[in-house]
Write a structure and sequence with these properties.
about 30% strand, about 280 residues, 2 domains, Chorismate lyase, Arc Repressor Mutant, subunit A
């Protein structure tokens, strides 16, 4: 095939991929804000083509993406129906709550409760390959979607990386984006999910009853060279966020390396650090 034809074909594929994702984002936004409520039918493929000026295949791909996220169901000749307005978070977006929220048309926000340099807890030390008590930078943030508290983020960074955060306003946006812009390699992550009951502190921050079920994600982030950078214990309201995993039988999955000691969730250390900034939400 001539090079010009190959280039044109690749360009066409990129444009098609961009168009169906744009259409999926718009439909997702309408579902989330209630313009298309749960139980209502989406426009048919033909109607979407006419309304948005896209090809039939583009409309079909957009609907397939929403169906894969669990937002819609039905089909086979009948317009798909909205099943839920709870957004799914794909694993590839887990490193950045801000990026995920913006991708789904929501307004991300954060309130920083504390940032401090202190000795590593046992959990953080195990995850980061440190001795317990070695200095790390801890950050506690409340994450918001459209102004609603939906997640508590308790994160420990190795000191060499975390010290950069003392020159950054964590309320201004994505910590991961800031660190990446400053040359920090955040390439790999291992995620562990389980359920946990909300502690009294969790309940106060999330404005929910103590003991309510939360979805917990524990994450260990490393560089391409497998150098530990960050350990985080994130707790989500499960009525707001779910997670999706896509597999392919084409590849072989590597065996999962288990923790030497399971980093069970814990509150950040309460001892005083050599550096700290503490904030309280209004």
């Amino acid at each position: 095939m001539p090079k010009a034809a190959v280039s044109l074909d690749l360009y066409s594929q990129v444009v098609t991929r961009t168009r169906y994702r744009q259409l999926a984002e718009e439909l997702r936004r309408r579902i989330v804000v209630g313009e298309i409520p749960v139980g209502a039918a989406l426009p048919s493929e033909a109607a979407l083509c006419e309304q948005f000026g896209v090809a039939r295949g583009t409309a079909r791909q957009a609907l397939a993406e929403l169906r894969g996220e669990g937002l819609i169901g039905g089909g086979r000749g009948a317009p798909p129906v909205v099943r839920t307005d709870v957004l799914a978070q794909p694993l590839e977006t887990l490193l950045s709550f801000t990026s995920w929220a913006e991708r789904t048309g929501r307004q991300p926000g954060q309130q920083t409760i504390e940032i401090a340099r202190r000795g590593a807890s046992r959990c953080a030390a195990d995850a980061l390959g440190l001795d317990e008590g070695e200095p790390v930078v801890d950050i506690l943030r409340l994450r918001l979607l459209d102004g609603r508290p939906v997640m508590i983020e308790r994160t420990s960074f190795v000191e060499s990386v975390g010290r950069l955060l003392f020159d950054f306003d964590p309320d201004s946006g994505s910590i991961f984006a800031y660190l990446t812009d400053n040359g920090i390699d955040l390439s790999m992550a291992r995620h562990t999910f389980d359920a946990i009951a909300a502690s009294a502190d969790d309940a106060e921050l999330l404005c929910i009853p103590a003991g309510s079920a939360l979805l917990r994600e524990r994450r260990r982030t490393t560089s391409r060279a497998a150098e530990p950078i960050e350990f985080s214990d994130d707790r989500y309201c499960p009525d707001v966020v779910t997670f999706t995993v896509e597999n392919s039988s084409a590849g072989t999955l590597a065996p999962v390396q288990r923790w030497q000691r399971d980093p069970v969730a814990s509150q950040p250390d309460t001892g005083s650090g050599t550096q700290s900034r503490r904030r309280r939400s209004a």
